[in-house]
Amino acid sequence: MHELVVISGKGGTGKTTLLAAFASLARKKVLCDADVDASDLHLIMNPRIHQRHDFKGGHTALINQDKCTGCGICRDVCRFDAINENFKVNPLSCEGCGVCHYFCPEEAVDLPQKTCGEWYISDTRFGPLAHARLGVAEENSGRLVTLIRKQGKELAERMGLDLMLTDGPPGIGCPVIASLGGATAVLIVAEPSLSGLHDMERVAQLAHGFNVPTMTCVNKFDLNPDQARAIESMAERKNVAVMGRIPFDPIFTKSMIMGRTLFEYDSQSNGALSVKSIWEKVFKSLKNHCEKNKKLPD
Amino acid sequence: MIISVASGKGGTGKTTIATSMAFSVEGAVQLLDCDVEEPNAHLFVRPDITGAEIIYTPVPEVNMNRCTLCGTCSEICRFNAIVVLGETILPFTELCHGCGGCMLACPEKAIRETGRELGVIEYGSRKGLEFIHGKLRIGEAMAPPLIRKVREYAKPGFLTIIDAPPGTSCPVIAAMSGADFILLVTEPTPFGLHDLKLAVGAVKLLDIPCGLVINRSDIGDGRVREYALAENIPVLMEIPFARGIAEAYSRGEVLAQISSGWKEKFQELSERIKNIARQKSAGTSYA
């Protein structure tokens, strides 16, 4: 079982469009959308949902006003300013630490577990998809990322599939950290701008800390060829393998509007052809990493 | 007055809008970059950094001379961040949320707090604009406490513009809550619309007035505008796609400073926002 995780650091560089395009090229794979905070892969994959499960996340304090004597201990011990002067809990501030629950002398604080989102197992025209949706303003996105990757891997094993393509979240924080552990390799989709260079360097450093083999490609490289070169030379210095460049091509947007992958929309466009060449290199590199790990793929 | 610039989907133009507005408005203005995972505003503002503050979150340290291995600390900790293991106590500080529960609950007073570095806050200025940003330490998972620390730099009497992170979960809430207005930046594509709906859900939860900027407004389709109309969200600005704008962005140039007319448009945008926020605080509906 090997897993490619596509991440970016900076948002909006083309992770999901690229992953959907890979999905139409790769054979015998499971898809996984680990961008649980703002998942978009389903908009292209149009999944038929077979299983729907609640995601139980953290806890939120709930004060029973009948038992509360207004002593104020809960407000004193809460570090998150989550309890107001009327002893009402603000669920957006509550961290779910339960310190108020522990110290309340009247046992007036309950700590129910929240349903923070949902996760799904679905079928798509490109194979099975494990995906999830974190509720708006919820916490624990890292836990949901870990859960959905685990579900995807189990699904792959049950179905005898050897590859998982995972659409990762932007940034470098908790959901990204949760998407890196145990991955066979990561692909960072970069954009040729000062911001793109800055963000790519930070996320590459994070991936390096996880000891995951890291690759990159530059999307829309012709918007600034100098920055594209700067990203590639920085990648080489950081031991990140450069897989290729994708030109700015309106079919990225056009295909998205039709709910199609690049290859379904126009397989001979410059954008699609460059993505195909990148996929071939990425797949070869995945195979190499697997051979090193003594797990021979098909 | 605090305006938070947010988006749902990444890469829609939050930083472009936040930096352009910050450089266009006259008077006392601050820009707070709260996208602490991948802060970019400094690449456009190019501030002279005059100071920095390393930010820590409290984590437990156990004095083994006092500890009796009673296990109370691991009982109260809901994040598995402190565990009794044989003859010793093991704090897993990277899992710690800094609630202080273990320290308060320890009957032997064997726990004191030390710090785990969350990242750094840097501050400075450029052309009269005050600039503050947070940079999350690489490998650190928890952005919200650092974002809250950046927010503490907001000064009364200033127009404070916040560049928020993408998404709709806890880091975004930390960058939006308590703002007077939320300016949502989107693009008119299916991904843009889908993530915009999630972002509007978060804004409604916070009960803050909001408005929309549609970036690259001539690519994509009309569904974002239809949605905005149906939801009564005012479209305050549209920026058409232009290769020149994308190229200038890639070089770290501020939109309001590269071509004529944009500065006035951003001034007008901030005036419209101020009016809407004022009406809202006076109790009338904004839409």
Notes on the protein architecture:
The complex is a heterodimer of chains A (298) and B (287). In chain A, α1 (15-25) packs across α11, α5 packs parallel to α6 and α7 runs parallel beside α8 (225-237). Chain A has helices at 15-25, 41-45, 73-77, 99-103, 141-158, 174-180, 194-209, 225-237, 251-257, 262-266, 270-292; strands at 2-7, 29-33, 48-59, 62-63, 109-110, 113-124, 127-134, 163-167, 185-190, 214-218, 241-245. Chain A folds into 2 domains: 2-56 and 119-292, Rossmann fold; 61-111, Alpha-Beta Plaits. Chain A contains 11 helices and 11 strands. In chain A, strands 3-6-7-2-8-1-9-10-11 form a 9-stranded mixed beta sheet, with helices on both faces. In chain A, α8 (225-237) links the parallel β10 (214-218) and β11 (241-245). The longest helix of chain A has 23 residues, at 270-292. The mean pLDDT of chain A is 95. With 287 residues, chain B is α/β, with parallel strands linked by helices. Chain B has 2 domains: 2-28 and 155-281, P-loop containing nucleotide triphosphate hydrolases (Rossmann fold, 3-Layer(aba) Sandwich); 57-117, Alpha-Beta Plaits (2-Layer Sandwich), CATH 3.30.70.20. Chain B has 11 helices and 11 strands. Chain B has helices at 14-24, 41-45, 72-76, 101-105, 144-151, 170-176, 190-206, 223-231, 243-250, 255-258, 262-281, and strands spanning 2-6, 29-33, 48-62, 82-85, 88-91, 111-126, 129-136, 159-163, 181-186, 210-215, 235-239. In chain B, α1 (14-24) crosses α11 and α5 (144-151) packs parallel to α6. The mean pLDDT of chain B is 95. At the A-B interface, α4, α6, α7 and α9 of A face α4, α6, α7 and α9 of B.
